[in-house]
Amino acid sequence: MRNTLIDAGPLIALFNKSDQYHLAAVRFLEDYNGYLITTWPVITEACHILGFNVKCQLALLEWVRRGGVRIFDLNESHLSRLIHLTEKYDDVPMDLADASLIIASEETVCHKIASIDSDFYIYRDIRNKYLENVFGNNLG
């Protein structure tokens, strides 16, 4: 079974029916077979954006609780890498959620991501490799 990282954009779209990427997010999950991995900063970002609608926010959290995604656990040992990535990509800029996904990629050896952001075509992991964005196939 394959693993794929998931960014806030597709999560927001999945739980907000008025989001322009909602149908793409639904199609992605219908066709997906594997584990989705994300981080608490990504969940926090998604909940913040969904905050205008508490029902959407709660639906996301319930989906996470039921195992819709696996949470990669960041800890203090990751702080130096978070700082390094944020400094390295300060011209993009890289936020905490994006940096956390790069670290999750490095630690889980997962090279695929579902994201609506073009930033992941810029970011590289510790092995100097780009992540493959598998969500883009559902945008058309």
Automatic annotation (TrEMBL):
InterPro entries assigned: PIN-like_dom_sf
Protein name per UniProt: Uncharacterized protein
